[in-house]
Amino acid sequence: MPCPRPRPLQRSAEMTTSSIGTPAIPALRLSGIDLHYGFVKALDSVDFEVRPGEVVAVLGDNGAGKSTLLKVMSGAHRPSSGAIEIGGTPTEFSSPKAASDAGVQMVYQDLALVDAADIATNLTLGREPLMKGPLGWLGVLDKRAMRREAARELDALGVTTAPVTRAVEMLSGGQRQVVAIARSAVRVASREHGVLLLDEPTAALGYAQTRQVEDLIRRMAQNGIAVVVVTHNLPLCFQVADRIVVMNRGRKVADVATSETDNDSVVGWITGAKAAQEHLRPVA
Question: Where does the ABC transporter domain start and stop, copy by copy (predicted)?
């Protein structure tokens, strides 16, 4: 069944353009990225950018290079050649931690949540407040402060989910995905050039749960976060993405505004039945 035409997203024009009408500096830009595995060229001269408040969907068949590209963005893989910029500043990611420190957060398919812990603990993981006084010196966590902070952060993101005291193992698939995305979004929300990377965020989710994730992705973008979504879910792309990038055999074969393409064209680029765009959207 063909995908629905995308609804206009007013926030894209607002968030990706500065107050004087010039395009905003990309939150993340890749230029001429090559990646070799021995004699295999996994990525071939890939240019990519995402701007603050923009959602970019990356599509492609299995082995097309989309997940590899995401790993370069997240610091999990170092490119063989090419350049990476954060907010217009050249940088290198030697590890996922380096990317995280630069404001790039990755949400993996396995979510990396602590199932036995509650929502508050998962949201504040790695930055837990300690009790004041001697108990804090001994490393005792301030559970009440963690819950207050988690509730405040979820409220700021407009996220409605289960009580923050509920264990993650008791949540539905959609709720777990929302918690994982919210945790990463909190860590980039205060960054001027925060980037959120999502790997198949709606895999194995039902319709209602997928809509819950879609709503959260939109809210992240409305808050000025640059969002990159790798997915096989075409309806999701046309529902939330401002722009669609298609990978095929390690090369970028299409880079178009969602409003300027359709389901058949995207499928054609993915399968190779449609020739690469004659004029790819230029990377400024």
Answer: 28-274
